[in-house]
Backbone:
């Protein structure tokens, strides 16, 4: 098969799948409007390895039209982050006009407040006008599946999907250092509204009598107010900040914590750091606003809490802190399971989706939703 992915940037969260498809013998083209944005570069993002995929960086309408019109008729076009951008609009029009195979890869929209109502109208109108011609929808997590069903898309065309991240390198440490006595919990990301960091500090304050430390890695406009909040609770010796790191350093740090926490109370279409933690054997607590909550269906990998609920988060933190340090047995079990969110597994899943959509094969189950052995 020939796959053409249409993206905004060359995201490290959208490189594993094209590379795996290329390794499986498919022809793969990745088209983006730019290689990387400045804000992502400041966060330590690098242009990832797309393997055998051909990379095209272009905003030229004629070139984009040629990629659709002169490409193989049987090519599968997947519009990802570029969907509501000029690139995505142009590609969608071309694919519909030429009757090419077309699917989208999308998160759920933020449905809160009046803006959420507007987005529902926008997505519902899309379904009625052109979305009925989408052959398939790769929806990020259960939140994405529910959103597209709510906007009128039939269940038979919606498939739970995810973002996928690089597996740890062979020399990367994945077990926490043995010298620590108490659990170390971590957060990795931006300090911005919607990440639930205020609720995280409040919840930790309710667990102050327990032995733990929390490290926040990242940066953002809430840095000062978070520091003030920590100081007001007298948690200065238990909570520390680290700046954004280059990706390899960040991943090595992540592999050394006992528990990752992603308590987002705003829109969190996925939360790729959840993948990155699980692939290093690290359990995760995240909120039900995170699409990646789909990866925590079994309690030995972590827990999902109600977004914005400080008591619920505090109770869950207490339960996990009481377990003590992460063990090698736990790490090995989680990391072994994480093969199902690796490139090879996901490439097979996408092949199964397309066999189902275009050739009538049985509907495949997302590999991360299959029941794990106890």
Residues:
């Amino acid at each position: 098969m020939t796959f053409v992915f249409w993206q905004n940037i060359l995201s490290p969260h959208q490189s594993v799948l094209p590379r795996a498809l290329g390794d499986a013998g498919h022809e793969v083209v990745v088209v983006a409007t730019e290689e990387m944005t400045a804000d992502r570069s400041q966060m330590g993002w690098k242009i990832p390895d797309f393997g055998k995929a051909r990379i095209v960086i272009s905003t030229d309408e004629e070139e984009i039209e040629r990629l659709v019109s002169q490409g193989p008729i049987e090519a599968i076009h997947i519009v990802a982050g570029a969907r509501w951008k000029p690139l995505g609009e142009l590609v969608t029009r071309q694919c519909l006009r030429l009757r090419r195979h077309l699917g989208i890869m999308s998160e759920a929209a933020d449905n809160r407040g009046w803006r959420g109502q507007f987005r529902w109208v926008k997505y519902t109108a899309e379904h009625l006008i052109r979305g009925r011609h989408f052959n398939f929808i790769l929806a990020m997590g259960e939140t994405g599946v529910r959103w597209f069903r709510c906007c009128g898309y039939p269940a038979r065309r919606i498939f739970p999907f995810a973002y996928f991240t690089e597996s740890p390198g062979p020399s990367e440490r994945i077990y926490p250092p043995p010298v620590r006595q108490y659990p170390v919990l971590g957060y990795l990301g931006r300090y911005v509204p919607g990440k639930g960091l205020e609720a995280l500090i409040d919840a930790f304050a309710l667990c102050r009598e327990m032995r733990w430390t929390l490290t926040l890695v990242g940066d953002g406009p809430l840095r000062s107010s978070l520091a003030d909040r920590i100081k007001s609770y007298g948690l200065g010796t238990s909570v520390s900040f680290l700046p954004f790191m280059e990706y390899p350093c960040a991943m090595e740090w992540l592999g050394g914590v006992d528990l990752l926490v992603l308590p987002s109370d705003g829109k969190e279409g996925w939360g790729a750091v959840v993948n990155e933690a699980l692939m290093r054997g690290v359990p995760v607590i995240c909120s039900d606003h995170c699409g990646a909550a789909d990866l925590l269906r079994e309690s030995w990998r972590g827990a999902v809490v109600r977004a914005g609920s400080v008591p619920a988060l505090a109770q869950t933190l207490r339960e996990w802190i009481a377990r003590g340090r992460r063990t090698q047995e736990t790490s090995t079990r989680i990391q072994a399971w994480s093969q199902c969110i690796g490139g090879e597994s996901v490439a097979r899943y996408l092949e199964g989706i397309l066999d189902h959509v275009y050739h009538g094969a049985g509907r495949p189950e997302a590999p991360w939703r299959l029941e794990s052995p106890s």
Summary: The longest helix spans residues 113-129.
